[in-house]
Amino acid sequence: MFGRILVPLDGSEAALAAASYALSLAEKFNSSVALIHVIQHAAYLMADSQSLPQALSQSLDEKGTQILEHALAIFQPFDGHVTTRIVYGHPGIKITEIAKENNYSLIVMGRRGMSDVAKLLIGSISNYVLHYAPCPVLIVRNSG
Fold it and tell me: What does pTM read for this prediction?
C-alpha cells in the first residue's frame, strides 16, 4: 500500500516523531523510506550560487547532515531500505516536487517545526504540502 515513504526532517521534535511513525509504517508495509532535509536559506535561492560564503554553506550542510543522522538512528533496527538526502530551496515546494518526481506513495511529516510567529509570517510547510502533494500526507503530532 505504501511502498515508498518520504519523511521530511527539520530537526524538530515533531519531525522526529514523524520519523518514528514512518518507521512503524515501513515495518508494517515493507516500505522503503527516504529521509530528506531541505535547507532554506536566501542565498541558496539566488541565481548566483557563488555569492554564498563557503563557511556558511558548509555550516548549513553539516547541520543538515546532523539532522539526518539523528533521524537515521531511529531506523537502526529497520531491515528495509532507507536513504538520506539534503536538498536546497523552499521546503514545501521541494518536498512536493521530490514526492512527484520519485513517485512516493506517502509523505509522513511533523505537524509543527517552527514557532507560531514564523508560521504566521511565512505560512505552514505542512499546510503547503497537504495542498500540493501528489500523494497522501500523514501529519504526525508531536506526542511530547
Answer: 0.86
